[in-house]
Amino acid sequence: MMSFPFNVAGQERLGRAIEGHPREIVDVDGVVIPVYDFEGFKPMLASHEEVTYVINFWATWCRPCVEEMPHFIQVSREMKHENVRFLYVSLDFRKNLEKGVVPFIRTRGIEDQVVMLNDPDANSWIGQVDAEWSGAIPATLIFRGNKREFHEKMLTYDELKSIVQSFLKQ
Amino acid sequence: MMSMIGGSAIAGDGGYQVGDKASGFKLKNVDGTWVSLDDYKDAKGFIVIFTCNHCPYAKAYEDRIIALDRKYARAGYPVIAINPNDAVSYPEDSYENMQKRAKEKGFTFPYLFDEEQVVYPVYGATRTPHVFILSKSGSGMTVEYIGAIDDNYEDASKVSARYVEDAVDALMNGRKPEVTITKAIGCSIKAKKS
Question: Complex ipTM, two decimals?
């Protein structure tokens, strides 16, 4: 297991620079997961005029989260050539990262970036993700430029696809 | 069988705000009896907690919930735990499993089953665990606090903000809680599939 900041190989595998300010970067045989507290994670919520971000809040123990994930994986594959970026933010307990989250990513063949948000003082940051969010998962935040939607529910394939398409149309 | 007393079962407004009058209810406890808040003649209020068996967040709080009842029941603010989940999709949250869990952990408080799923929508509970602290007065039950138990689900020894304790301590001293609403990550409540 390699660790930040000398994880050049990890960054190469990610295919992109590590954004925000992770507290640690966990690399388990090629599955690279940055771990953030909320302050370090916040830069990843910055919007961009051209890119549509789909940020899914989930955990391995959350059944509806796991049930909707294939929809996200499928939509992401279908939109590979569009300017959309999918990000999965795991809210698993930190101790479950290597033994639970990493194997889950491998089994599911998740290719998009997965990060862990490990900041137990959730009351201080839930409202910063979305003022209406109660904290229940699954929840998905989608934004591009000034357009923003927050869905505190499990999304079907059709719902997700049509939401993302509505962002791409602009 | 369940019943709602003095309230509607329609959750169109999204549940209670702090300051609202809270509806009573009568739900089945793990010991087979039916429990209503009216049964508690000496209570000054209640720590109502929507919680369940299966959710890791709820499990992480079980010992702390037991500690809250130990600290506040005799002072007049007992814990009332309610499982709001659909046991068909989540058999771990079935009535029988609730009975097992209550026995294993030695729950000292009622662990009620919102089997018809009519109580949690009226309260506006969205996740487990989700706390609603009520105060009792001549005019009924008032919602005084809604939200999380404390600020660290992962490690009880690292808690710095004890939201529920602070709120009940304030009420016991004739004051309103300073912090009345907090949010927490939790498992969404599992509604029955129609």
Answer: 0.81
Name A150's bridge partners.
Answer: A141
Chain-centroid distance of CA B68 in Å reads: 12
Q: B45 to chain A, minimum CA–CA distance in Å? A: 24
- Chain B residues within 8 A of A63 when measuring between CB atoms: 90
Nearest CA in chain A to B158: A120
Interface contact flag, B154 A93, Cβ < 8 Å: yes
Residue pair B142/B20 in contact by the 8 Å Cβ criterion: yes
**pLDDT of A142 over the 50 cut:** yes
Question: Distance, in angstroms, between B102 CA and closest chain A CA?
Answer: 22
Contact A120 B153 (CB under 8 A): yes
For A14, the token pair is 């990610």
pLDDT at residue A30, as a whole number: 87
B-facing residues of A in 66-85 (CB < 8 A) are none
Q: How sure is the predictor about A16, in pLDDT bands with cuts at 50, 70 and 90?
A: low
> How close, in Å, is residue A123 to chain B by CA atoms?
5
Please give the Cα distance from B62 to B81 (Å, whole number).
10
Buried b (16+ CB within 10 A) or exposed e, B162-178: bbbbebbbbbeeeeebe
User: Nearest residue on chain A to B56, judged by CA atoms?
Assistant: A61
Residues from B in contact with A at Cβ < 8 Å: 55-56, 90, 126-127, 147-148, 151-155, 158, 161, 163, 182-189
Q: What is the mean pLDDT of residues B139-155?
A: 95
Kindly tell me if the per-residue pLDDT of A79 is higher than 90.
yes
H/E segment holding residue A25: strand A24-28
Over residues A80-115, the pLDDT tens digits come to 999 999 999 999 999 999 999 999 999 999 999 999
Distance from C-alpha of A97 to C-alpha of A95, rounded to nearest angstrom: 6
